[in-house]
């Protein structure tokens, strides 16, 4: 029997890659989103409003063995009002899925839950988020943990860091540089670039997310990351060189964001354990 996995936000930047990774790892994928045109056709596609409050959502989504909840509005706009406005809808969806009979819930997390912090992040690192995005994600993490614990449901919080790759489809600095290069701009306004982040390609992240969901022995908060801090300047300069772009970075045009950590990266001990079992 193939493991049946429901993926919400399946048509999104990360979702499309994760659906493919799950399929490649042998899952039966039920993909749901408002737009599924670019989702792997091996998946079972269901267009649905998961935030409708439907109490029968578990059954109507095919009674999956696991749900990977990736749907999230305005993930690249850290202080959008949508984060707090939709928070209760995310919780309601997960609550209804568990009440319906779901036995494994995995939710996409973010480094922005942590807030201002320097060093390696593990599952015990305190969270003090300082953006609306981080606050909402952290609140969902805490509430779904209690919900799953009380219902004896497997709970996985899959924390991602700085994602790149497939760059024309995201809203990151890499997408903005591609656009500036196409427009023939010679300079790209930049901050100091000194802050260090944990960068990971979206296809590699997708492979990690899929691996987490396909097993149930390693649970809780799992960092899906490289574990290697690299300065933003180094990463962006390498990106420009790799693509043979002519554009140059104009350092110091923008101040560094006050809520960005000087250096933050994920402790990868749990994800490495999962990946080793796969191989």
Globular, elongated, flat, extended or rod-shaped: what is the shape? globular
User: What's the CATH topology name of the largest domain?
Assistant: Rossmann fold
Distance between the termini: 21 Å
Q: How much is the radius of gyration in Å? A: 19 Å
The beta-strand count equals: 14
DSSP helix fraction: 25-40%
- Strand order, biggest sheet? 3-2-1-4-5-7-11
Mean pLDDT: 95
Oligomer: single chain
Give the uncertain stretches in residue-range form: none
Strand-residue proportion: 15-25%
Overall number of domains: 2
Structural class: alpha/beta
Number of separate helices: 9
Q: Find the CATH superfamily of the largest domain.
A: NAD(P)-binding Rossmann-like Domain
CATH C-level name of the largest domain: Alpha Beta
Provide a descriptive summary of the structure in words.
The chain is an alpha/beta fold. 34% of the residues lie in helices and 21% in strands. The chain has helices at residues 13-24, 57-60, 82-85, 87-100, 132-150, 173-182, 202-213, 232-242, 269-278; strands spanning 4-8, 28-32, 44-46, 66-69, 104-110, 119-121, 154-160, 162-164, 187-189, 196-201, 220-223, 229-231, 248-250, 264-266. The strands form 4 sheets. The chain has a 7-stranded parallel sheet, with helices on both faces. Helix 4 packs parallel to helix 5. The model has no long low-confidence stretch (mean pLDDT 95).
């Amino acid at each position: 029997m193939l493991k049946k996995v429901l993926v919400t936000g399946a048509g999104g930047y990360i979702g499309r890659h994760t659906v493919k990774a799950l399929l490649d790892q042998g899952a039966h994928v039920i993909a749901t989103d408002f737009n599924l045109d670019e989702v792997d056709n091996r998946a079972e596609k269901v267009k649905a409003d998961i935030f409708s409050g439907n109490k029968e959502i578990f059954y109507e989504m095919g009674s999956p063995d696991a749900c990977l909840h990736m749907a999230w509005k305005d993930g690249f706009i850290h202080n959008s009002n949508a984060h707090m406005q939709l928070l209760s809808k995310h919780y309601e969806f997960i609550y209804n899925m568990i009440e319906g009979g779901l036995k494994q819930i995995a939710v996409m997390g973010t480094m922005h839950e942590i807030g201002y912090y320097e060093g390696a992040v593990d599952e015990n690192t305190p969270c003090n988020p300082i953006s609306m995005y981080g606050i909402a994600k952290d609140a969902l993490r805490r509430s779904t943990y209690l919900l799953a614990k009380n219902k004896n449901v497997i709970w996985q919080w899959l924390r991602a860091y700085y994602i790149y790759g497939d760059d024309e489809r995201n809203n990151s600095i890499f997408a903005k540089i591609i656009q500036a290069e196409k427009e023939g701009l010679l300079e790209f306004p930049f901050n100091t670039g000194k802050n260090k982040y944990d960068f990971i390609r979206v296809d590699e992240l997708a492979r990690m997310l899929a691996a987490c969901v396909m097993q149930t022995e390693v649970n809780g908060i799992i960092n899906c990351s490289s574990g290697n801090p690299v300065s933003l300047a180094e990463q962006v300069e390498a990106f420009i060189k790799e693509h043979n772009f002519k554009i140059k970075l104009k350092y110091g045009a923008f101040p560094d964001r006050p809520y960005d950590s000087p250096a933050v990266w994920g402790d990868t001990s749990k994800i490495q354990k999962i990946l080793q079992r796969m191989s």
